[in-house]
Design a protein that fits this description.
Helices cover 20% and strands 32% of the residues. By secondary structure, it is α+β, with helices and mostly antiparallel strands. Strands 1, 2, 3, 4, 5, 6, 18 and 21 form an 8-stranded mixed sheet that branches. A 7-stranded mixed sheet has the order 7-10-11-12-17-14-13. A two-stranded antiparallel ribbon has the order 8-9.
Length: 356
């Protein structure tokens, strides 16, 4: 059998993929991404929320102008993810660390994104810091069918009081006519230390697994994408032992989960955020086995990546090489986020009758 060769060059929304020397087929390619927007808060003090401790509210001068710059910077990154290949912004992007639907609307209405007509799925969550997760999607590409929010119930070890943290967002819709499910996560932080806080993220992983199991109980072939800032690496117990995410596509079980970020972390030493000169790969996108089938007439996983373009990297000083964050030392840096975005490409063969 002729050795398969695969390369992608963008042509509008369609990609030409040569599967062998004699035959050329056309594919549509879509970017699915996730981005931690690092404390995207508005400038209004909401008395019902603990938003006064946000970096935006701590800024005393030119707050409105700084907010506009922050919003535009977020839109710039979103507009850029995957665009070199698809010539388009992401079809779907999960986001976290957003205060409310208003700030998401401001990002979606930025001139860089306005023409893409992004829809928003967002629920106000119970998080103590008033930060939520959400989903942005191009309405012309993805049609929402159902949406739901799933609460993580965890408790303080000593007081046994409820810890209010981020809900997990589940959105089901059709991309290229195919039903897919997207779960957006922002798991509990490592506050107090990794070991002490570990059970909270294990609990978050168990909730995530229950959502996935419930979808697969209805449809064993469900195409599920789970994404987010997990505050854990691909090798930590929450991902490795609870989700049982697999690094090798060929070893993914029938209802199993594939995590393309395991090898990026273990073999390549890559990360999405840095702390004390150590890289972590907290931001991940994982998929269920049906995305791995080589039937390109259906949506199929192609590749994954970390979006770490040069302009997103700190160029100097103590944090040289780190993500260029928006806020530092009580001020605005005109940067972006303390996390790099992550993305995957999904491809699907175009039925081109002219070539038949």
């Amino acid at each position: 059998m002729t050795h398969l060769k695969l390369w992608i060059t963008a042509l509008f929304l369609t990609t030409i993929v040569s599967l062998n020397a004699q035959e050329k087929k056309k594919y549509k390619i879509h970017t699915v991404a996730f981005y931690n927007l690092e404390n995207l808060f508005d400038t209004i003090n909401d008395p019902t929320k603990y938003d006064e401790a946000s970096p935006m509210m701590e800024i005393k001068a030119d707050r409105s102008e700084i907010y506009k710059k922050k919003v535009h910077n977020m839109a710039r990154v979103i507009a850029d993810i995957g665009s070199d290949v698809t010539k388009n912004t992401p079809a779907i992007i999960g986001i976290c660390e957003v205060e409310n639907v208003n700030v998401i609307e401001d990002v979606a209405n930025d001139p860089l994104l306005l023409g893409k007509d992004y829809g928003i799925v967002h629920f106000d969550g119970p998080d103590n810091r008033s930060i939520d997760v959400a989903l942005l999607y191009q309405k012309s590409l993805f049609q929402v069918m159902t949406k739901s929010t799933h609460t993580l119930k965890i408790y303080d070890d000593k007081t046994r009081k409820r810890i209010n943290t981020r809900d997990q967002l589940l959105v089901t819709g059709r991309l290229e006519g195919e039903k897919i499910h997207v779960i957006v996560n922002h798991w509990p932080s490592r506050s107090g230390g990794e070991a002490k806080s570990r059970p909270k993220r294990v609990a978050a992983a168990k909730l995530n697994k229950r959502i996935i199991d419930s979808l697969q109980s209805v449809d064993p072939y469900a195409k599920i994408i789970t994404m987010g800032d997990l505050n854990d690496d691909p090798t930590n117990a929450s991902v490795k032992d609870v989700l049982k995410a697999e690094r090798n596509k060929d070893k993914v079980d029938f209802k199993g989960i594939y995590n393309p970020y395991i090898d990026m972390f273990k073999k390549e030493g890559l990360g999405t955020t840095a702390y004390r000169d150590a890289w972590s790969l907290f931001d991940q996108i994982m998929i269920t086995k049906p995305f791995l089938d080589k039937d390109y007439t259906n949506l199929t996983y192609y590749k994954a990546g970390i979006f770490n373009k040069y302009y997103l990297v700190n160029k100097k000083g103590r944090y040289k090489g780190y993500p260029l964050r928006s806020f530092a030392d009580g001020g605005f840096t005109n940067g972006f986020s303390d996390h790099f975005p992550v993305y995957i490409y999904l491809i699907k063969e175009v039925n081109d009758t002219k070539n038949k």
